[in-house]
Specification:
heterodimer; A: mainly beta; 7-stranded mixed beta sheet; 4-stranded antiparallel beta sheet; globular; B: mainly beta; 12 strands
Chain lengths: 114, 113
Amino acid sequence: EAGVTQFPSHSVIEKGQTVTLRCDPISGHDNLYWYRRVMGKEIKFLLHFVKESKQDESGMPNNRFLAERTGGTYSTLKVQPAELEDSGVYFCASSQDVNPYEQYFGPGTRLTVT
Amino acid sequence: AQTVTQSQPEMSVQEAETVTLSCTYDTSESDYYLFWYKQPPSRQMILVIRQEAYKQQNATENRFSVNFQKAAKSFSLKISDSQLGDAAMYFCAYRSTGNQFYFGTGTSLTVIP
């Protein structure tokens, strides 16, 4: 069984540019989560999809971040325009059953904004 | 709001020895889940062990065990007979009844041959 995959693994962009991160969850997992870890700090929740619907987006930092999950399969997270403080590692996770099973994490996308 | 604190940014252990990673959390909930995740240098984060708050018995998974002290809101991870492959960043996580995960800042574990 394939795990959660994320693309790209690393992205370097300039301030003001746009970047789109992609996450492919484990097949059949309805729940998809995005997290972000800024260097040396804790991993913070961004949002949670159940199929194509946003269940909880309370962690999204501002309106420069847009997440979508069309068709309830893969998800994209777009940052537009990117700022320096957006640098970090963006993790995606999926789960088959919200309660009580654990989430399966992807390898993350390291975003560097210069 | 729930917070998770890992007070040890870095730890090291001699191969075959035992090491304990500490984690404390703050919550007003009575029912929740706690996890330890491991992120090796290859970056894929994997679950090490899970503890349900309503269970008094400490969870164990082979060489990994936890010391769960609910009243003290403490959830430490003990790794016995440490192996080189245990070297990784370890994250403590709390899962609330609202299904949100809260993570600590991580502990980087080095295993010395």
